[in-house]
Design goal:
The complex is a heterodimer. Helices cover 32% and strands 28% of the residues of chain A. Chain A is α+β, with helices and mostly antiparallel strands. Among the domains of chain A are: 192 residues, Rossmann fold (3-Layer(aba) Sandwich), CATH 3.40.50; 176 residues, no CATH class; 106 residues, no CATH class; 109 residues, Sandwich (Immunoglobulin-like); 107 residues, Immunoglobulin-like, CATH 2.60.40. The longest helix of chain A is centred in the first third of the chain and has 38 residues. The N terminus of chain A is likely disordered. Chain B has one domain: Beta-Lactamase (2-Layer Sandwich). Chain B is built from three helices and six strands; from the N terminus they run βββαβββαα. The chains are: A alpha+beta, B alpha+beta. Chain B: One of its GO terms (biological process) is endoplasmic reticulum to Golgi vesicle-mediated transport. Chain B: Keywords: ER-Golgi transport, Transport. Chain B: Belongs to the TRAPP small subunits family. Sedlin subfamily.
């Protein structure tokens, strides 16, 4: 309804449901206006049959005077003219009058209705006050209304309503109006429901008969359309649309069935040849012409479809769904084309194109007519399909009618055009006056080449713009491409180029190879016309290598290049540089030798494997790779280091000198840009802290980001030929060093080319660009990626001497390896190494000494004997002639004598702990090392080379003196600190300066022993003497040793010598301890005090020399020395009660004994070892502090440990806290400051403790339930 | 009747690159460099090769180029349809995109996997036996078979599909459809 008001242009059917009026016409006329106004004012709910949703509906009606002709006759199913309700109007209020005339009239009316089976009627009695007042003789009891109800509505009292004072503005009047209208609406709806239901039933019945032979779709169409009309009349556009959609579907199904071989008779009329193709007509709500055609069964398929769509379109626009129109239109057009094809309808060629073109534009015009500009722009996506379709159709019409050809249409084309235009018929009256009607457009476009071009371009650009606007770039490019084709046809390659280039780029970028090939072919044609030689050749090169083309085509393009290349260059012309990518692909490069690191002047070959993409063999005059030379700092870098760096370089580096070039995915194989793209090189990066190599951070690094993040366009420029030439950087630089190969014939497929790399100067050479020349054409690859490089180095001659084993051991012959890297020096005949001899390390040369010569790659080249001459001072080794950059290796045996004096001082002092921190692992084990320096004169240098060798002494010796009463033993402990197993033989101990004869009696049984690594051998000798022991004894231990592995046992034995000195050997005192159980008890018990009796006995008169040392005092003629004793219990077995230490004066006489009584308490039960008792020399403070006893030689350990033990123990044993001054024993400094008495320990062996190792039985306390037994 | 079936790579390819493990000293003269490569030499640039066909086959072969153009152009609509669905809705998005657009000769249907690999089926407009349901089931079959291809450990994601199983499945489908 709103559509009516807003768009008055739209002509709609002015149909309304018909309501007839009988009775008092003047009365009705007076009420008509307000009735017609008020009826549609309020909506009414329409409940529908078949479960359809109820609807609110505004009712309108067309009130007409009742005539009998209006009533439908039997079988007439026209719905539009069907009177839905019959109303009888009367304002009779007079019974007499009623009886006289009105009743009869009503009866007649009723019988007529009954005759036609119409039951939808209503009697309206209009009451007015004015009339009543006039007629005072009204019987109030029985009103006219009652009478009428009584007469006519025997059961339906609601069929008679009263309208009171309709023309007055009173509330009563209002009420009666509204109740009347409600009644009227209800009855109308009831009538609709009933009549439409009946109609639908009839229609359905008719539809069910569709398999019967006489059935006609056109008849049925008319019936169902009637229903659609009624719904439209009732403003139920949705329902109306459903009717048309049903018809559409039914028809479609028939066509499909026909296609499937199930043809209906009536379809025959639609199979008639198409004679008119004047397009859709959407400007009229109902195209009566076509409707009549259908009604007559003369409509063609296009007529039917057109009519159906125009109706659907009208309804959709009523429903405000213009975008559905466009969508349906496109479907319809596609569908019609298909259906005509399916029904095998004969159509003049091009006629359908005309029809589609006109229809597209008609739909677009129709949509434009009902939408504003902003709406249209926002809904491009809905209309663009129609635009494109129209463009396509116009294009094909243009091609058909010869409007695209360069020469214009031929007469045949003109005939065809005339035929096509004839089928359009006359322009419809609606558009005659409009300037831009589809009809006019088509007429114009087909009339001349220029007009066609104008219209075609206009449409194409419009469609392209729309596609661009909605982001459908691919579709836009496709139109662009067809435009390009158009331009090419018109012989206008300049304008085509841009479109082609644009499309080509997008296809290349997205990797659609067929399109690329196709477009590239067009591009080549275009470029050839434009005479863009370079671009044309580049495109040709790409096409020649394109696997999508046939071999003939490829050969053609290849020939194009070759022909150009072979032409003699014009003076102005330069060579043409093309991208190598189109011509050939690099597959791999292989260096020989594989390390790609060679010395100056060495031969280095590079094998390049290239896949030639050309279809025929191409003769390349020169293939050259430019080298970038860079002088690396430290040109004479170690060979090994650089070689390792080389291997594994680049992601494809295989470590064997092969560089593989990444290949793109197969689809890109035909010379597409993608194949040349660098790989993403990701490296894991770990940052470790330098101190403890813990991980600080880790990450992934892209090493070739600069290549990957290049702009898209710039990298594509090489592959898609554009107007611009290749970058200037490609210009081949002749001055640089090059790898060159001349006159090669590249066969299609893989080719192998061998280059010889220049190695004239030390430095690093990187391959930069590759350039193949074919006549005037050069194929250039500007970058070679991954990086291919090789290194040339120069090296100074170098001599190294290294041990053959882990450590060199002193004392036995050891092999050392001499390695001479000749570098650039060539060893001539007569060159010799001069080694200056040292006494401590003689060189043992045997006759069978030979040298090996190795080449730079580590291959064994030769071997020759060495002649070694020794003079007193110099050992001369004459070297065999060796070429430069070779390695000369030989081995020599050397022997480092073990120095006889034990040179421990430096090291041994540090023994306690500190040594551990020394870096050398050998120090851990206490190996003594000897550094031997060898001075060598080399022939290539005027300076001597000083080489240091470190030898390790394999043994460590220790000695100690053991006592048993007065008897003395010497023990030597020899520890093998090396990793080698030795045989040890003939241990001999001798006295060096025998002032007083002492017999050393060997207690060692075996003569030869095996000493494993880290094992020790102990040797023991008893000392026998006649008179007395010397104060000081110089001893020398010697033994011979040989490695177990030594073959020649006799010569292999080498001497080992260890010298030491013993002082104060003889026993001065003996100590004896006794533990006495408490009186009356037989055994000691835990927790009870026991007596400890210590007796100190002087064993011998001190010798004179000893006496000097000993501090003695003379008291009453008796010489005494002061001793301090101390009870030390290390294991906390004993608690010393009372004093634990004391000072005693000992007479300086043999067998003088001193007894001390102390009390101790056992803390545990069991066999407890006796507590330890120690004796010190007690030196009064006045005495000049004696020089600290020399702790060197072997004594220091024992002495020191004794002291240490004492100091350590103080924490354990409370009883010796009291000793106080003992602390200061070792500290001489303190002594000087404070005049305190001093303690000095005895040498080992001077005091003999008899009770060492004795145990006493301690019983537990009897009532102890828990017995602790301590077994030691 | 003509049918074309295409599988098109996702927009932005995830690429498997040679990953090199090394210590930072590799950049300098390191005595040792070691690296591991994942899945051989397979490289590609994120800038290139988006939306390229992983697999495309059509019968009859004469119209191949036209099919390629059609499929390629249909990507516009696929993209439009994917982006039309909101980000939040993307999870519940139906994979089947329905009819992308009709042309006079062909109907183009689209389907997008969750990983944005696109399937496109083009059938003759006149082929009335293929309704929406048939197309749907064709896509489902295609997707299943594609999943099998992806599960193959020897297949590098992003390579063109050369699986025989996939090929024969497509052949069967084409025979059935035409």
């Amino acid at each position: 309804m709103e559509a009516h008001e807003e768009k008055p242009i739209i002509y709609t059917m002015e149909n309304k449901p018909i309501v007839t009026c009988a009775g008092d016409q003047s009365l009705f006329t007076s009420l008509y206006t307000s009735l017609a106004q008020q009826l549609p004012r309020e909506p009414m709910e329409w409940r529908r049959s078949y479960g359809r949703a109820p609807k609110m509906i505004h009712l309108e009606a067309n009130f007409v005077q009742f005539k009998e002709e209006l009533l439908p006759k039997d079988g007439n199913r026209a719905l539009l003219t069907f009177p839905f309700l019959h109303i009888y109007w009367t304002d009779c209020c007079d019974t007499e009058m009623y009886k006289a005339s009105v009743k009869d009239d009503m009866l007649r009316w009723q019988s007529t209705l009954r005759l036609h089976g119409s039951v939808d009627w209503l009697i309206v009695v209009v009451e007015s006050e004015a009339k009543k007042k006039n007629k005072t003789n009204i019987l109030p009891r029985t009103s006219i209304v009652d009478k009428i109800r009584n007469d006519f509505c025997n059961k339906q009292s609601d069929r008679c309503v009263v309208l009171s004072d309709p023309l007055k503005e009173s509330s009563r009047s209002q009420d009666s109006w509204s109740s009347f209208l409600t009644k009227l609406r209800t009855l109308l709806l009831m009538s609709f429901t009933k009549n439409l239901g009946r109609f639908e039933d009839d229609m359905r019945t008719l539809r069910e008969k569709r398999t019967e032979p006489g059935w006609s779709f056109c008849d049925y169409f008319m019936v169902q359309e009637e229903l659609a009309f009624v719904f439209e009349m009732l403003q139920q556009f949705e329902d109306a649309l459903v009717q048309y959609d049903e018809l559409d579907a039914l028809f479609t199904q028939y066509v499909l069935n026909f296609g499937a071989g199930d043809g209906a008779n009536w379809l025959g009329s639609f199979c008639a040849p198409v004679k008119r193709w004047n397009g859709l007509l959407l400007r009229r709500p109902i195209d009566m012409e076509k409707r009549e055609l259908i009604q007559r069964g003369e409509a063609s398929l296009l007529d039917l479809r057109s009519y159906l769509f125009s109706r659907q379109c009208t309804l959709l626009i009523f429903l405000q769904r213009p975008w559905e129109v466009t969508q349906r239109a496109l479907e319809l057009l596609h569908n019609c084309v298909q259906e005509l094809c399916l029904l095998e309808v004969s159509v003049v060629q091009g006629a359908l194109d005309c029809w589609v073109f006109l229809s597209c534009l008609e739909v677009l015009h129709r949509i434009e007519g009902c939408c504003d500009r902003a709406q249209l722009e926002a809904n491009c996506s809905h209309t663009v399909g129609l635009w494109t379709y129209a463009t396509e159709k116009l294009k094909s019409l243009g091609y058909l009618c010869g409007l695209v050809a360069e020469k214009g249409p031929t007469s045949e084309d003109l005939n065809r055009t005339v035929d096509l235009l004839a089928g359009l018929g006359e322009e419809r009256p609606e558009t005659v006056n409009s300037l831009q009607s589809p009809y006019k457009k088509l007429n114009e476009a087909l009339s001349s080449v220029e007009a066609f071009e104008k219209h075609y371009l206009e449409l194409s650009h419009a469609a392209m713009e729309m596609y661009r606007a909605i982001g459908r770039m691919r579709s836009a490019r496709l139109i662009g491409k067809s435009l390009a084709e158009f331009y090419m046809k018109k012989g206008d390659p300049e304008r085509a180029e841009g479109f082609l280039d644009d499309s080509l780029r997008s296809y290349v970028a997205e990797g659609w190879s067929l399109q690329v090939t196709h477009t590239r072919k067009q591009m080549a044609e275009c470029q050839k016309l434009l005479q863009q030689t370079e671009d044309y050749l580049q495109t040709s090169a790409l096409l020649a290598g394109d696997a999508n083309l046939t071999v003939e085509e490829r050969k053609h393009f290849c020939q194009e290049i070759l022909t150009f290349a072979s032409q003699p260059p014009a003076p102005s012309d330069q060579t043409v540089a093309l991208s190598m990518a189109a011509f050939a692909q690099l597959r791999q490069m292989q260096f020989s030798p594989p390390g790609a690191v060679v010395h100056v002047g060495a031969a280095l070959q590079l094998e390049l494997r290239v896949r030639c993409l050309m279809p025929v063999a191409v003769k390349v005059e020169q293939l050259a790779a430019t080298l970038h030379f860079s002088l690396e700092q430290g040109g004479a870098r170690g060979r090994a280091g650089s070689a390792q760096r080389r291997t594994g370089q680049g992601p494809q580096g295989q470590g064997d000198g092969v560089v593989l070039f990444p290949q793109g995915s197969p689809l890109a194989g035909a010379g597409m840009g993608a194949s040349l793209l660098p790989a993403l090189e990701l490296y894991e990066m770990q940052d470790r802290s330098p101190s403890d190599s813990s991980l600080n951070s880790t990450g992934v690094v892209c090493k070739n980001m600069h290549l990957l993040l290049r702009r898209h366009d710039s990298s594509a420029s090489l592959d898609t030929p554009t107007a611009g030439a290749l970058p200037a950087a490609i210009a081949v630089d002749d001055g640089a060093q090059m790898l060159r190969a001349r006159d090669i014939t590249l066969q299609p497929g893989d080719n192998s080319i061998l280059f010889t790399a220049p190695t004239g100067e030390p430095g690093s050479y990187t391959l930069r660009q590759l350039c193949g020349s074919v006549g005037r054409v050069q194929f250039v690859q500007s970058h070679i990626y991954p990086v291919v490089q090789y290194e040339v180095y120069s090296q100074e001659p170098q001599l190294t001497i290294e041990p053959l084993s882990d450590n060199l051991l002193a004392g036995i012959p050891q092999k050392v390896k001499f390695t001479i890297a000749t570098g650039h020096y060539s060893v001539k005949k007569g060159d010799a190494l001069q080694l200056s001899n040292t006494d401590s390390m003689p060189i043992l040369h045997s006759s069978c000494c030979s040298a090996t010569i190795l080449s730079s790659t580590g291959e064994r080249v030769g071997e020759s004997a060495l002649s070694i001459q020794s003079s007193e001072k110099v050992t001369s080794i004459s070297l065999p002639p060796t070429p430069p950059y070779h390695t000369l290796e030989f081995q020599l045996e050397v022997l480092c004598h073990i120095p006889p004096t034990p040179f421990k001082p430096d090291i041994e002092r540090l023994t306690n702990g500190e040594v551990r921190h020394r870096p050398k692992s050998h120090a851990d084990r206490g190996m003594i090392n000897i550094d031997q320096k060898v001075s060598i004169d080399c022939p290539w240098s005027i300076y001597s080379t000083l080489i240091s060798l470190t030898f390790y002494v394999p043994f460590k010796a220790k000695h100690s003196i053991l006592s048993a009463g007065k008897r003395k033993y010497i023990q030597v402990c020899l520890q093998n600190v090396s990793d080698t197993i030795f045989h040890l033989a003939d241990p001999v101990l001798t006295e060096c300066q025998p002032t007083i004869p002492v017999e050393l009696l060997s207690l060692n049984a075996k003569t030869q022993q095996t000493v494993c690594s880290q094992q020790s051998v102990f040797c023991l000798w008893e000392m026998r003497w006649v008179e007395r022991l010397p104060l000081c004894l110089q001893c020398a231990f010697s033994a011979s040793f040989a490695p177990v592995s030594a073959s020649d046992a006799h010569t292999a034995f080498k001497p080992y010598r260890y010298e030491f000195q013993l002082d104060r050997v003889s026993t001065l005192y003996s100590l004896k301890a006794e533990i006495l159980p408490p009186s009356g008890d037989q055994h000691c018990r835990t927790g009870t005090l026991c007596g400890l009796e210590v007796s100190i006995t002087r064993q011998a008169e001190p010798s004179e020399t000893e006496g000097e040392e000993e501090e003695s005092t003379e008291i009453e003629g008796l010489r005494t020395t002061k001793l301090m004793y101390e009870v030390v219990d290390n294991s906390s077995n004993w608690a010393v009660c009372g004093k634990s230490s004391g000072v005693v004066s000992m007479p300086v006489a043999a067998s003088a004994t001193h007894r001390v009584q102390m009390e101790v308490m056992p803390l545990f039960a069991g066999h407890l070892p006796f507590p330890n008792i120690k004796v010190f020399k007690y030196l009064p403070h006045s005495a000049v502090p004696a020089i600290q006893p020399d702790t060197d030689s072997c004594l220091e350990n024992d002495t020191m440990s004794l002291l240490d033990k004492g100091l350590d123990d103080q924490g354990d044993t409370a009883s010796i806290r009291s000793r106080g001054s003992v602390h200061s024993v070792g500290s001489g400094e303190q002594q000087r400051v404070l005049p305190m008495p001093r303690l000095e320990p005895f040498s080992p062996g001077q005091v003999f403790y008899l009770s060492q190792g004795r145990q006493v039985l301690v019983l537990p306390v009897t009532d102890d339930h828990v017995m602790e037994v301590n077994v030691t | 009747m003509a049918v074309c079936i295409a599988v098109i790579a996702k927009e932005v390819c995830s690429y498997w690159a040679g990953t090199k493990a090394c210590t930072p000293s590799t950049c300098g003269p390191a005595p040792y460099t070691f690296y591991l490569q994942v899945f051989g030499h397979f490289f590609f640039s994120p800038l290139f090769n988006q939306n390229y066909p992983l697999y495309i086959r059509s019968v009859p072969i004469q119209n191949e180029l036209k099919f390629h153009y059609t499929v390629h152009t249909s990507l516009d609509v696929v993209e439009e349809k994917i982006s039309a669905v909101g980000k939040a809705m993307a999870d519940q998005r139906e994979l089947y995109l329905g009819l992308l657009y009709p042309t006079e000769d062909y109907k183009v249907y689209g389907y997008v996997t969750n990983s944005k690999v696109k399937f496109v089926i083009v059938v003759d407009s006149s082929n009335t036996s293929l309704r929406d349901n048939e197309i749907r089931s064709m896509f489902r079959k295609l997707h299943n078979s594609f999943t099998d291809v992806m599960c193959n450990p020897f297949y590098n994601p992003g390579d063109t599909i050369q699986s025989k199983a996939f090929d024969s499945m497509v052949t069967a489908m084409m025979v059935q459809a035409s």
